[in-house]
Amino acid sequence: MDHRGPAFSGLGHKVLTGMQSVFRTSGPVVIFPSSGTGAWEAALVNTLSPGDKVVMVETGHFASMWASMAGKLGLEAETIPTDWRRGADPAAVADRLDSDYNKSIKALCVVHNETSTGATTRVAEVRDAMNAVGHPALLMVDTISGLACADFRFDEWGVDVAISGSQKGLMLPPGLSFNAISEKALEASKTASLPRSYWAWEEMLEINKRGYFPYTPATNLLYGLAEAIEMLQEEGMDNVFARHRRHGEAARRAVAAWGLETQCVEKRDFSPVLTGVRLPDGHDADRFRATVLENFDMSLGNGLAKIAGRVFRIGHLGDFNDLMLIGTLSGIEMGLGLAGIPHQAGGVGNAMDFLKNNIKAVGRDEAA
Ligand SMILES: *Cc1c(COP(=O)(O)O)cnc(C)c1O
Question: How far apart are CA 337 and CA 294, in angstroms?
Fold first, then answer.
């Protein structure tokens, strides 16, 4: 399709308004042809100026990568550390912002679903904490793996810039990324002076009004996006979130029955998207992953950065159902045996019991 021709604008309008409903915002959403990392950069360069101070809560590998990007872009990036076993602590955010007497912190950045650990951040509580101390920093949220899996409400939660990508909850191949933008962030972009061109919101938003893009969009992925949005709306967003929560609970019940520990230890922060599992000391998670790959052709997520070799990750997001989860858990249980990892049997059975005893409660779509 000619992306400058008359037929294109229907598709353009459809995906742009569709993404507003997925982010739950009445404000603009921009779509870049890039991986999620590009939209991280877009969020920073559109709203900030060289030397600006940003505070990032380091909940895991992805949060630390975003902080490192901020440094490379010429921002002063400060991190609030965690043990990588929970989401951001709203009280720690309030403390840090409260001590910023001259309001030099321009943005507070958190990751909604930390994909490296399997912990979520309670974004609404972070916003409340910022409001409680009356700090004017922008709230930026990476929901690259959270969006369309875990409840996310851009307007209601007072988020200023949200960042996402196509290849996680949106069930698409990689190649699209997103920024949802608040009025306050748009206002900040008028005076922000970090250099930007490809990522500039201004020209994008102007041309988006007519359903077009300033440069060649990833047209084929936009067709997929329109379909993904329709699938989400057919199932109903609340049902999508409930399905993810239920699979997260079933996966954790399997892990508990095996006698293993989840990487996330804070109950309120358990991820509905993925489950990070720790192996006992002295057992290499990558060797275990290789055993599962070789024998069952199943690729488990690896531990990243400082938890490499300690953790493997079970993804249960996107276009996913009960039997896919049970198949996944079965491969793990057999792999634990083959790799000689100390564990108890019965994890898969425990997950099956939970799923079959909780069929109705989750409002699973009738068509399935
Ligand atoms: C996947 C992911 C990223 C990186 O996105 P890319 O598409 O690989 O650039 C960043 N943050 C989180 C939370 C992610 O899950």
Answer: 14
Nearest CA to ligand 1 atom 2: 144
For ligand 1, the distance from its centroid to the CA atom of residue 148, given in whole angstroms, is 15
Domain 8-234 class in CATH = alpha beta
CA of 114 to the centre of ligand 1 (A): 9
Task: Write the pLDDT tens digit of every residue in 55-113.
Answer: 999 999 999 999 999 999 999 999 999 999 999 999 999 999 999 999 999 999 999 99
| Residue 36 near ligand 1, beta carbon < 6 Å | yes
Determine if ligand 1 sits within 6 Å of the CB of residue 145: yes
State the distance from the centre of ligand 1 to the C-alpha of 89, rounded, in angstroms: 21
- pLDDT on residue 368: 44
- Residue holding tokens 């993404």? 19
CATH architecture of 236-367: Alpha-Beta Complex (3.90)
Q: How many percent of the chain have pLDDT more than 90?
A: 97
pTM confidence score: 0.97
Give yes or no for residue 288 CB within 6 A of ligand 1.
Answer: no
- Calculate mean pLDDT across residues 119-142: 98
Pocket test for ligand 1, best of 31, 32, 41, 62 (most atoms within 8 A of CB): 62
Q: Which segments of 115-229 are extended strands (E)? A: 119-120, 138-142, 161-165, 177-181
In contact, 162 and 154? CB cutoff 8 Å: yes
Tell me the CA–centroid distance for residue 343 and ligand 1, in Å.
31
Query: Rounded distance, CA 266 to CA 120, Å?
Result: 10
Domain chopping of the chain, boundaries: 8-234, 236-367
The alpha carbon of 102 and the centre of ligand 1 are apart by a number of angstroms equal to 33
Which of 342, 334, 286, 280 has its CA nearest to residue 313? 286
pLDDT tens column, 200-253: 999 999 999 999 999 999 999 999 999 999 999 999 999 999 999 999 999 999
Query: Could you tell which of 31, 37, 116, 269 is best to mutate to test the pocket of ligand 1, judged by most ligand atoms within 8 Å of the CB?
Result: 37
Tokens encoding 301: 């997520």
CA nearest to 358, candidates 275, 235, 248: 248
Do 341 and 333 touch, CB atoms closer than 8 A? no
